[in-house]
Amino acid sequence: MLLWDTQCFVVLKIVPDISLPHTLTLEPIGVIRSCYQEKFGIPRQPGLTISARAQLELHGACNCPEAVVGLEQFSHIWIQFVFHQTLAEGWRPTVRPPRLGGEKRLGVFATRSTHRPNPLGLSLVKLESIHHEKGQVWLELSGIDLLDGTPVIDIKPYLPWADSQPDATAGFAPEPPETITVSWTEAALLQCRQAGQQLGQPFQQLVEEVLSQDPRPAYLKKRPREDYGVLLWGYNVRWKVKEEGFEVFSIDLAGGSYKES
Ligand code: SAM
């Protein structure tokens, strides 16, 4: 049985054959404040949109500067987190990876699907800086694939000599996804630059990186719409499909939850 509330994540399992405790409690150590306020638009892995930034706010007993002493020596960290937004949807033994056009089924453990028996995610992200102010410790991250509000259950430093395997093979996803060319109308580019100044963020790069990943699910590619929208940093970014790629035609403030540092 899986229980979730905003305070803690509890996994209760009866494991008759294994001499483990029957109850394991995972309490989030913090929460993600991210540029991605909805799932649509988030790349399928970290590192694909390097301008995508987030703050990881530490919580409870972990919200103490001592817990992160030495972490600043690492350029990248692993974030273990809960797929909290898809938790209630459960899981199936097979899933349809978007990489295969949503047409072929594979075992859930052969994929990085969000719908898993234990809804835990793992992302390698860049650690930009660590802050401690007014009783709050937080980490500035980039290259993320995490939704705003994601509960984090652990942080580990990335060790290139142990964690990187240049000779590894990667089955049905051997290369990064193909990218799409992104262009702008004059008006949208102006709106984007103003928004970027307001946010203090590399907003134009973020929009271009996100759209170049083609966030549309397979079914929308087959039945294209007139236009599309994605929410980034509280701005509604709208674009059209053109012959040569995507064209951004408007950027409007829709309200956001990012806490500026
Ligand atoms: N890198 C992680 C992994 O391999 O475990 C996540 C991979 S998963 C395919 C990435 C997708 O998870 C994103 O495109 C986004 O749609 C979704 N996602 C991110 N944060 C989430 C959350 N808190 N709850 C549910 N889905 C989330």
Describe the structure.
This protein has 261 residues and is mainly beta. Among the domains are: 27-84 and 119-163, Beta Barrel (Elongation Factor Tu (Ef-tu), domain 3), CATH 2.40.30; 182-253, YaeB-like fold (2-Layer Sandwich), CATH 3.30.2310. The protein is 13% helix and 33% strand. It has helices spanning 160-163, 186-199, 203-212, 218-222, and strands at residues 2-4, 9-12, 23-26, 30-34, 53-58, 76-82, 94-95, 106-107, 120-133, 136-142, 151-157, 182-184, 228-232, 235-242, 245-253. Strands 4-5-10-9-6-11 form a six-stranded antiparallel barrel. The protein has a four-stranded mixed β-sheet with strand order 12-15-14-13. Strands 1-2-3 form a three-stranded antiparallel β-sheet, with no helix packed on it. The site of S-adenosylmethionine (SAM) has 19 residues, from strand 9.
Q: Largest sheet at a glance?
A: 6 strands, antiparallel, barrel
CATH architecture descriptor text of the domain at 27-84 and 119-163 = Beta Barrel
Mean pLDDT equals: 90
User: What would the CATH topology of the domain at 27-84 and 119-163 be?
Assistant: Elongation Factor Tu (Ef-tu), domain 3
Q: Give the class-level CATH name of the domain at 27-84 and 119-163.
A: Mainly Beta
Distance between the termini: 38 Å
| Proportion of helical residues | 10-25%
Detail the poorly predicted runs: 1-6, 256-261
Total of helices: 4
Give the oligomer, counting copies of the same chain as homo and different chains as hetero.
single chain
Structural class: mainly beta
| Topology pattern, helix = H, strand = E | EEEEEEEEEEEHEHHHEEE
Radius of gyration: 20 Å
**Amount of beta strand:** 25-35%
Q: What's the arrangement of strands in the largest beta sheet? A: 4-5-10-9-6-11
CATH superfamily of the domain at 27-84 and 119-163: YaeB-like
* Ligand inventory: S-adenosylmethionine
Q: Count of DSSP E strands?
A: 15
